[in-house]
Design goal:
With about 350 residues, the protein is of the alpha/beta class. It has 15 helices and 12 strands. The chain has 2 domains: about 260 residues, Rossmann fold (3-Layer(aba) Sandwich); about 60 residues, Ubiquitin-like (UB roll) (Roll), CATH 3.10.20.30. The strands form 3 sheets. The protein has a 6-stranded mixed beta sheet with strand order 2-4-1-5-6-7, sandwiched between helices. The longest helix is centred in the middle third of the chain and has 30 residues. The protein binds guanosine-5'-triphosphate and magnesium ion (MG).
């Protein structure tokens, strides 16, 4: 799972990347890649319960990209090549005011959103046109391209209406036909608006209503963050951090919500393994079966899968131990067709 972080120059992409991945970087206009933890109160609570030697969160790979430069140079092949490869996009939009950090087009969050959206649509459009031209030549020789051509024409209609391809309802078969194209406006998108302290306190920034309304209509999650404040919060010890956040009227840094929203937006869920050595979160897709979950740990466990021992996170926290859950009849043995639920605490019986 790889997530690209994009946005206008000097919007706070690298700051966001550093917060997500805990990798310290100076400002700089280059591509950075690192793994970031997905914050989860459940893994923290399980870790307190078991006091293991090691606690391991679910992780996602984040890619910090250079900023758009109003179509000058940066949107070249390298840039688009990296973008084609990611599973989802975080778009960082600048709202913060600063005398020292220049904003290319002034502070206009909705305007910036529209511009980036346009750029992505244009990239998809040129990909589509190239493909359509090539297919027009193949057409009389090969009839199998007909179905694909039909879907591509649907895509063209959407782009011609100035809309992202995400808005297009396709059947599974149709999806399969165009999966290989890696259209940018088909990728799940999450918007992170980067606010300054005053905007955070007053819960307001320029063009807020327009932006939020538009994103709501497009079903795109919009999360307020504050790069600078959250970097400061990171430097504090836990008690001071809590006090500072209380004072700001927030329960947790926005960045934690960004990470979790990306995770959920991609249809990902966590199951846990617990013990004295390690408490660990594992990532599976919604709808995955118990053997598929076992396969995340080791392919041998998937191959030799016999049964999964399952308890729910909530029940485990309520009763405090798996032994108690056995006594209460809340301990389950599940077979190979079992669909994993978010928060399942599992161990596997297998033979190899
Ligand atoms: N005042 C203020 N400054 C910020 C905030 N977030 C980031 N900055 C500053 O803005 C500058 C740019 O931040 P970066 O995170 O490097 O932005 P970027 O989008 O990665 O920039 P490029 O990669 O050059 O396009 C840095 O000097 C940051 O310290 C914020 O919330 N408030
Ligand atoms: Mg940067």
């Amino acid at each position: 799972m790889k997530i690209g972080i994009i946005g206008m120059p000097q919007s706070g992409k690298t700051t966001t990347f550093s917060l997500l991945t805990n990798v310290k970087l100076g400002a700089g206009n280059k591509t950075n890649i690192a793994m970031g933890k997905i914050p989860d109160y459940r893994i923290d609570a399980l870790s307190k319960l078991y006091n293991p030697k090691k606690t391991t969160h679910a992780v996602i790979e984040f890619v910090d990209l250079p900023g758009y430069s109003n179509g000058q140079g940066n949107n070249g092949r390298d840039f688009l090549g990296i973008l084609a490869d990611v599973d989802a996009l975080i778009l960082v939009i600048r709202a913060f005011k600063s005398d020292t950090v220049p904003a290319v087009n002034g502070i206009q969050p909705f305007g910036d959103f529209n511009q980036i959206q346009q750029e992505l649509q244009i990239a998809d459009w040129s990909l589509l046109e190239t493909r359509l031209e090539r297919m027009a030549k193949q057409r009389n020789k090969d009839s199998s391209v007909e179905a694909e051509l039909e879907v591509l024409n649907k895509c063209r209609e959407i782009l011609e209406q100035d809309l992202p391809l995400r808005q297009l309802d396709l059947t599974q078969d149709e999806e399969r036909l165009i999966r290989g194209y890696d259209f940018l406006t088909k990728k799940p998108l999450i918007v992170a608006v980067n606010l300054d302290e005053e905007q955070m306190r007053t819960d307001s920034y320029p063009e807020k209503n327009q932006l939020e309304q538009d994103l709501l209509e497009k079903n795109i999650p919009c999360i307020a963050i504050s790069g600078q404040l959250e970097a400061e919060i990171n430097e504090l010890d836990e008690n001071d951090a809590v006090l500072f956040m209380e004072e700001l009227g927030i329960q947790e840094p926005g960045i934690a919500r960004v990470a979790r929203t990306v995770y959920r937006h991609l249809g990902l869920i966590s199951f846990f393994t617990v013990g004295e050595d390690e408490v660990r979160a594992w990532t599976v897709r919604e709808g995955n079966t118990a053997p598929e979950a076992a396969g995340k740990i080791h392919s041998d466990i998937e191959r030799g899968f016999i049964r999964a021992e399952v308890v729910g996170y909530e029940e485990l926290m309520e009763y405090g131990s798996i032994q108690k859950l056995k006594e209460k009849g809340l301990f389950r043995l599940e077979g190979k067709d079992y669909i994993v639920r978010d928060g399942d605490v599992m161990s596997f019986r297998f033979n190899v």
